């Protein structure tokens, strides 16, 4: 890259805007990245996996770890761990492929992407590329972009093959291990925790319970120890992790009681309570009234 490094760092969102509807319909979206920086560091909602080629000087932040990228790098991201990109030059450049797990597994029954060393929690998702690797990888991204715009009947299969080539190319490489803990790690972990918490809502169906319920669940998802998470959240917000979880669950419970016709048992299950009585006791402890009384008076 020939860009001059800016005297102060700026931050960018980790991908361009791609609508959820677009991904639901197609399961896949590729684009060339060439965008100016966003004025503030942000953690964006992601419901899809990502493979990206980054050619700009930047720092990628995952939970309490940060990694500086200088040169051409291949990176992988899963929809369960938010991350951010802090850019050290005026423009973010590269390529990005977003896809759902259903898209990748359409024609096979291979293991979940979450179990892949490239996408699993605690994995190392960034690889610095040599000039030869960079040229080869860039060629694959360009083939994906070209194929995306064709009417070829089996282009989905072909794009999946290209993605598998990127994955296998990365599996052959030595991953970058030079992560460092950032001086603002507590604030970063807290932002990631709050992003994961918010991502659980709104609850859309009584048939599916929220997957994360406790501080331990969130810590495991972020790849940090629960004590580390609790200390960071308390330091950054003045409130314990459990208080944030309880407040958000209560807020969602009130919305469901007010705006849906779901039974109390259905609401209890959707919010992760094993028994309705547990939900009733929890709700009364935090609001001073029962779910039934709240529903009747609102």
- Give the overall shape: globular
Distance between the ends: 59 Å
Strand fraction equals 15-25%
Q: Uncertain segments of ≥5 residues (pLDDT<50)?
A: 1-18, 39-45
Mean pLDDT: 81
Please tell me the CATH architecture of the largest domain by its name: Sandwich
CATH homologous superfamily heading of the largest domain:
Regulatory protein AraC
Task: Count the E strands.
Answer: 10
Q: H/E order of the elements?
A: EHEEEEEEEHEHHEHHHHHHH
Q: Biggest sheet, open or closed, and with what strands and sense?
A: 5 strands, antiparallel
Q: What's the domain count?
A: 2
CATH class of the largest domain: Mainly Beta
Please count the helical segments: 11
Strand and helix layout:
Elements: E1 10-12, H1 20-26, E2 28-36, E3 49-54, E4 58-62, E5 65-69, E6 73-77, E7 83-87, E8 91-99, H2 101-104, E9 126-128, H3 131-148, H4 155-171, E10 180-181, H5 185-199, H6 215-222, H7 226-237, H8 241-259, H9 264-270, H10 276-287, H11 291-296
Antiparallel strand pairs: 1-7, 2-8, 3-6, 3-8, 4-5, 4-7, 5-10, 6-9
